[in-house]
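By convention, each integer encodes one residue's backbone shape. The lines below illustrate.
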Amino acid sequence: MNLDFGLPIGGGWVRTADTTDVIFPYDGSRVAAAPLGTPAHAATAVEEALAVAPAMAALPSHARRAALTSAHDALRDEREEFERLLVLETGKPLVDCRVEVDRTLLTLTTAAEEVARLHGETVPLDLLPSGEGLIGFWTRRPIGVVVGITGFNYPLLLAAHKIAPALAAGCPVIVKPAPATPLATLALVRLLRAADALPPAAVQLVTGDIEVGRTLVEDRRIGAVSFTGSAAAGHAVARSAAPTKVLLELGSNAALVVAADADLPAAADAVVRGGYYASGQACISVQRVLVEEPVAEEFLSLLADRVKRVAVGDPRLPGTRVAPLIDQAAVDRVLSWIAASGAEVVTGGHRDGRAVAPTVLAGVPDGAAAWDEEIFGPVVCVRRVPGLDAAFTAVNNSRYGLHAAVFTRSLATAFTAIERIEAGGVVVNDVPGFRADNMPYGGVKDSGTGREGPRFAIEELTVPRMAIIRP
């Protein structure tokens, strides 16, 4: 894959004076030199997006759908190259990068389908006597220029969730990828800009530091900012962007409740599957596990036995499930949180080469960062609880609320969980990390505002325009 093409700004590709090395986390080797943008590049991109906004708003539905379909087909044809690139720039295991490409393809095709469903309704205006004889209807109109800022852990998928709904809605979009992982997003933008159906400046990308981000989000002419990343960074973006509309997909410390009547082997399998995928670098990976006391000992034994068999190593190998985190600073932070937790280390808790060994902690108290905050590493914390009421209280005793899960054979328990747990999604008998890319996805509390999933993001990126006609 040719990655030497500069920044897609305006109608062309702009060479930058500086570059930054993208590093393979597994061995620290250099993957490529990525173009490094500046605030001036960001300012130019905003002007170009504003200039093309009227043309994008007027673009017919068939053209918007064709552009997304074309990008989908091109990505499908190049999927193996994208998978290899994702492994190299993120360090995620190959199995997770294959899933990321699958989900990106679904996001593009779902957004293309939603173009046909972007419509309004008539309104009976004669509910008041003054409205007699009036005809009323509303349509959805593009919100304007969209700025999408993405995290490092799923760079291709997160970019697709910013770009595809914006284009489907008729909005030009400027995407800013995470500094450590810009390559797959650049390659995706290349595919989108190759579609003849779009004006070239409809999709732009700017890399760079926090000043580049400020240039993008602080411009009052921007219609909406869509951000995925940590809570602290998201709050800073929201403050900088105000009063512009901001959509925030932030972090979590996802909980999984194991009821006494649960299928314990299935629950243990789920914690392994949901706690260590992407090396734990996922905002809805299992972090907190609350187990009813009568089955806690058996569950912990089943879990420890399974975790010890999780394969750690080279992310390029199909059998690897845990690999080094994005950089060694992340490894150091995770290990420091483990050490400071005061908990029993059931298994793991140490370095395995450049990685953190898959870890299970027991008895992590409130107040420990490993329990309270998003650890973003291959660490699962298990706590015994006297009953389900205590479990659901503990799940909600968090500043986060993205996804949570419960394992139970009881329909009553399942519905109680759905009613009581304060989260954007509640999963029964599967991992909290389950996300279908066509469903509404987002959180409450410090886990964010707004919803993703093409249909729901398109609603966020359009505004109703009311038409009132007296014939």
Notes: The chain has two domains: 7-250+445-469, 255-428.
